[in-house]
Structures are given as structure tokens and as C-alpha cells.
Prior knowledge:
Layout lengths: L6 H23 L2 H17 L11 H35 L16
Amino acid sequence: MLKERNVECISILYDKYAPAVYGAINREVNNIEIAEVILEQTFINIWNHPLTELRFANHVMLWLLQTAKVVTAKILAEKELKNLINENNFMQSKAGEHNAPVIFPLQIIT
Length: 110
């Protein structure tokens, strides 16, 4: 039913499993706001790619937790990248440099 994008099915899945999945996510990231975003993105991912891995067909909770783990890694990596970019821009502005992009010289191989 989930493959047919049945709204009632995803709603039942969310109602039954979201609290446990949220708890697992929140223990991992230890941040309520980030955990809520990850939970939302997890169920969006499930809606967009319903049960793509047959090995989880009989283990819904395992499938949900695996999906949440992948989403968590992606979101935390994006957050880390944003922090690095913001930190780099801060360091450049503190050093009196312009906020122009950093351009690395190309090495020409002949």
C-alpha cells in the first residue's frame, strides 16, 4: 500500500513508529530541533522511496531506523559543511579580507 502512495498508510506508519524513531534520532543528535527535522525528512524519504530494500520488508522498524540513520548522516554533513563555510567567512572578515570567493590556482599539466 505504501508503494501506491496511500496517505492513510503513511499516516498509520507515522503514528505507530514516529515516537520511537524520533527517540532514536534525538539520542543520536541530542538536539530537539535537528531531531524534528531529521524525523520529518525520514518520512518524506519514505514517502518518496517506499520500501526500496526488500530485506527490510518484514522488519518495518529496522527499515525506518536505517532510513533515519542515512538521513541523519546527510543532514549532519550538510550542517557541518555550512558551519565550516560560515567559520571560513568569519575568519576572512576578521582578517580584513573581502568576502570574495577563494580561488585556487590551477595546475596546468603539459
